[in-house]
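In response to the reviewer comment on reproducibility (Comment 2.3), we provide here a single inverse folding case reported in full, input and output, so that an independent group could reproduce the run without further information from us. The C-alpha cells appear first.
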C-alpha cells in the first residue's frame, strides 16, 4: 500500500468524530504507523498486511494487543479492522538502549508481568513463536530463495541445533519476541510495552535473551535481569541457557534480514543489517562456547 493510499484509509475510518490529519510515525518496518488527533485525544493507527514468511499475522497481533491491554502493560485498543488497529497514543519518552540498561529493574518487572498476565488473558486462536521452528523456516526459505550466503546455511542450521539442545526443557509463555528499546515507552509514571507483531507462545528466555542482545547487556546486567525475573540469583546452568537464547535471538535477526534481502520491498539497507547481526552473533556464540566449556 502506498503512503497516499494508507493516508486515505486512515482519514476515512468511521471511528473518527470529525475530519482528521494523520501524521506519519517513523520506525515501523512491518507496519505503516500514523498519529491522529481527534476530538482532543491522540491515537496511533497501525496498518499492516499479513507476513506469513515472518510469522506476522494480524489477527494474532490484534489478539495479543487486546490481551496486553487487559494485562495493563500496553495501550488500549480503540478500534480494529482487517489489517488496521487504532490504539491510544502514549505521551512519553521512547527508550534507547542506554535507557533500557539504566531502567533494568523496571523493564525486567514489566516483562515478567507481561509474560504472566498476557499469557492468562489471550483467548482464541493465537500463534506460537517457537524460536527454533522460526529458524528452521527461515533456513528453508533461504535455501529455496537462492540466498547469497547459501554456503553458510548448514553451519547456521547446526548452530540452531546446538542452541536448542542447550536450552533444554522450558516453560512456555506468551512472549513479545521483539524487545527492541523503541518498544518501551515511559510516560513519567509507568512503562508501557508496545508493538505485538511478533507475539506468540515461546520460552521466556527468548525475550530475556532478545532484550540482552538488543540492548548491549554486559555479564552483570544479564545476571541482574535473571535475578529480577526469576527471583533468585542465577546459577551457571541458567546463565548458559540465557546465553544460548541470546545467540538464538541474534541468529534469528540475521536470518530475518537475509530473508528480507530477498523478499522485502521496503527501502532499508538489509545487507548492512545482516552484516551487523552476524558480527554480533559471532561474539555471542564465542561467549556461549566459553561458558559451555
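Designed residues, in position order:
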Amino acid at each position: 500500500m502506498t503512503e497516499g493510499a494508507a493516508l486515505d484509509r486512515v482519514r476515512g475510518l468511521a471511528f473518527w468524530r470529525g475530519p482528521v490529519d494523520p501524521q506519519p510515525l517513523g520506525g515501523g518496518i512491518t507496519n505503516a504507523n500514523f498519529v491522529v488527533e481527534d476530538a482532543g485525544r491522540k491515537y496511533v493507527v497501525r496498518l499492516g498486511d499479513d507476513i506469513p514468511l515472518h510469522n506476522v499475522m494480524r489477527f494474532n497481533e490484534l489478539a495479543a494487543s487486546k490481551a496486553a491491554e487487559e494485562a495493563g502493560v500496553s495501550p488500549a485498543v480503540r478500534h480494529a479492522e482487517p489489517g488496521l488497529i487504532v490504539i491510544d497514543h502514549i505521551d512519553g519518552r521512547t527508550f534507547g538502549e542506554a535507557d533500557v540498561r539504566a531502567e533494568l529493574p523496571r523493564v525486567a518487572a514489566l516483562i515478567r508481568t507481561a509474560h504472566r498476565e498476557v499469557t492468562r488473558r489471550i483467548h482464541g486462536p493465537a500463534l506460537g513463536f517457537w524460536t527454533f521452528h522460526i529458524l528452521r523456516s527461515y533456513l528453508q526459505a533461504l535455501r529455496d530463495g537462492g540466498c547469497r550466503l547459501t554456503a553458510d546455511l548448514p553451519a547456521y542450521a547446526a548452530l540452531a541445533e546446538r542452541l536448542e539442545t542447550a536450552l533444554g526443557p522450558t516453560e512456555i509463555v506468551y512472549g513479545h519476541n521483539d524487545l527492541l528499546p523503541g518498544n518501551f515507552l515511559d510516560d513519567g509514571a509507568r512503562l508501557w510495552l508496545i508493538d505485538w507483531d511478533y507475539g506468540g507462545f515461546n520460552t521466556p528466555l527468548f525475550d530475556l535473551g532478545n532484550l540482552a542482545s538488543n540492548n548491549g547487556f554486559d555479564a552483570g546486567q544479564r545476571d541482574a535481569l535473571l535475578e529480577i525475573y526469576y527471583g533468585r540469583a542465577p546459577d551457571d546452568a541458567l546463565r548458559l541457557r540465557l546465553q544460548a537464547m541470546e545467540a538464538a535471538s541474534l541468529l534469528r535477526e540475521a536470518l530475518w534480514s537475509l530473508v528480507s534481502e530477498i523478499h522485502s520491498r521496503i527501502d532499508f539497507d538489509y545487507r548492512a543489517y545482516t552484516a551487523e547481526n552476524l558480527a554480533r552473533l559471532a561474539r555471542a556464540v564465542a561467549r556461549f562456547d566459553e561458558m559451555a566449556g
